[in-house]
Amino acid sequence: MAKLLIFATFLLVSSTCLATPDTKIESYVVYLGAPSADKSPEVLQASHLQKLSSIIPSEEQERVSLTQSYHHAFVGFSAMLTKKEADLLSGHEEVISVFLDRVLELHTTRSWDFLNSESGLRSERLSRRASNDVIIGIIDTGIWPESPSFSDVGMKEVPARWKGVCMEASDFKKTDCNRKLIGARFYSNQAESTQARPPSNSSQPQALGSPRDSVGHGTHTASTAAGSAVTDANYYGLAQGTAKGGSPSSRIAMYKACSLGGCSSSAVLKAIDDAVNDGVDVISISIGMSSIFQSDFLSDPISVGAFHANQRGVLVVCSGGNDGPDPFTVVNTAPWIVTVAASSIDRSFQSNIQLGNGVLFKGCAINFSNLTSSGQYPLVLGSEVAAKYTPVSEASNCYPGSLDADKTEGKIVVCVSTDATVSRRVKKLVAEGARAKGLILIDEAEKSIPFDSGSFAFSQVGTDAGTQILAYINSTKNPTAVVLPTADVKEFKPAPEVAYFSSRGPGGLTEGILKPDIMAPGVSILAASIPSTDAGTVPPGKKPSNFAIKSGTSMACPHVAGAAAFVKSAHRGWSPSMIRSALMTTALTNNNIGKPLTTSLGANANYHDTGAGEISPLRALSPGLVYETTAQDYLQFLCYYGYKEQIIRKISGTNFSCSSANPSPDLISTINYPSISIPRLGKNNPVTVTRTLTNVGPHNSTYAATINPPAGVSVKVSPEKLVFGTRWLKASYQISFSESGAPKGYSYGSVTWSDGAHSVRTGFAVNVL
């Protein structure tokens, strides 16, 4: 993906190298805030075109056109502008922000069974409580409608409130939609423009393309969230079982805003705008900006769209990114977004390595080679079969062109990964191209995330096993080995673990909100995909599979979206923040051997790794108490973050006023969020925050607080008991933090409210200065 983006950027640069920064024409998004009830879409579009006419030179009036127009949940447009023109627009009194139309990155049988079994509750409740009236909008690369995961057998008629459409194309008909896949839209980066004329009521601009998925990403995420049950699902014999989504009774609406090269900001914004207006209940977005180039909350298209979706009662769930395990890498961190980390499940795909001395190592990979334990092949280091004039370091890393095919042919090559710029796929192609029999990769980083090498014998081990393999090579004159085909290992322990790639908190934009929010399965997830016909991916004698095994926070995100839809189906009146709170306060913090959650490297995980913990959809049905984060909370957040009241009023469409005369980022911690983050705790400077809980459980309930404080931090709760006479009653408490000998940096703990039947856990992170 990175190479594709780099290549695309090179083409763009080379084609515009003669333009100066001020004259280069690029796509920009112009954001104008909340919609006005007295302005129709036609009036808004005419107004936008007028704005463009006022800044674009008369000799270039053909550029007075809109590539996208937003007028449902929020108001704005995208257009082709120079930087100078964009700067002029940003100074307009109606304009909140103008930002470049950047490319955003695209970030099952066992996973849902694993989540349900870990909850300790009877999963029969799933089918008993579910209903057909919840709609999940997926913003992604499109959908493969023929997949059995999108069968509508047994589903009732489409809800009458649905206003969406099934857009047609040469390869996609209206009949491809049904009572499961109820809507499909597509968008183009260069959509046919609304020309500089009064817009017609007859039609909207049509995008060029199709809702059909040509990548597989969107089909995979859609089926993970809400796929129908498919028996005997598997990937060429692996991960066999019944595949189903988290909310198999929910409807799916696909919004294709992405391609293999990524997703344009303007298209993603338009997809959110349409999804809200169409009538979805939950939006799943496995997309995000790079953690290196994060924009502020009002210049990030996902943040802007999600804010207005929340205003309209739609929950937005986003992947947290794949830039882990370093801190400050999590993206999509606005407090009105549910930000998802990725975890493993209790299934592993093992490709064992048998050495000539009989020692067996359990490697990780997906390969369908025809090698057997009865055969052995010469085992060599990449540095030993280097091409002429190739540095040893390059051959050791399986650089392109680094291996001598005459030396490599018929052998199993051992490569390392000391250079992160060479991906596993490239290393595999290099070894395969050099006529190697197989490849063993020594790399601690992704040792538990299986790489699919097709029919080529590939396996990956960590540094401990790698050291032993290297010692064996050095101990004998003629070392040999064989890499065996993949076997499916179930009930793997410990699980879940935080995926190595999963982006970590704190959030780079503000540490006052604890992000990510929650963790869900994102490693080796089997779900529907497009039938692949790529050479080398289909084992000999097999037909292309209707399923694929993928990893990433992209896969974790639809797990949470499906869980949210499941909770929504049982509690139709709950707001987005109530559903998020239910998922967070009931999340699991222990693995399947009863120990605290760990990272893939074996260290104890913290809340910046896992969020509140691993989702437990069944437990979330009955959380007892919930934290309602209101629209007012989000507006106060923007105020504390530093936005002016005038801007916030445009965003909200209200006469909002900041609650404090001197707003400060330190006040962000006080908004009513289901977790707590204290970014600055100094000596002799205690911090107190207030939280409010709403009773959604039985009448006459009394909850008592239990504190799990970090070492060296004094934590006090007042009052220590909360009494709720009736359902929907609210009660507030204060929690105070003071430093008492804690080491510098972040410490973690929790406060749990319990009535004996429910446990409402709120995690906190405290940064001691």
From TrEMBL:
Listed Polar residues bias regions: 190-207
Subtilisin-like protease fibronectin type-III domain span: 671-766
Domain Peptidase S8/S53 span(s) in chain numbering: 132-595
Signal peptide coordinates: 1-19
Any one GO biological process: proteolysis
Gene3D superfamilies linked to this entry: 2.60.40.2310, 3.50.30.30, Peptidase S8 propeptide/proteinase inhibitor I9, Peptidase S8/S53 domain
Residue ranges occupied by any Inhibitor I9 domain in the UniProt entry: 27-107
Location of region: Disordered: 190-223
SUPFAM superfamilies linked to this entry: Subtilisin-like
Superkingdom of origin organism: Eukaryota
Alphabetically ordered keywords of this record: Hydrolase, Protease, Serine protease, Signal
Gene Ontology molecular function: any one: serine-type endopeptidase activity
Record: active site: 140 (charge relay system), 217 (charge relay system), 554 (charge relay system)
Recorded family membership: Belongs to the peptidase S8 family.
Name this protein carries in UniProt: CO(2)-response secreted protease-like
UniProt source species: Rhynchospora breviuscula
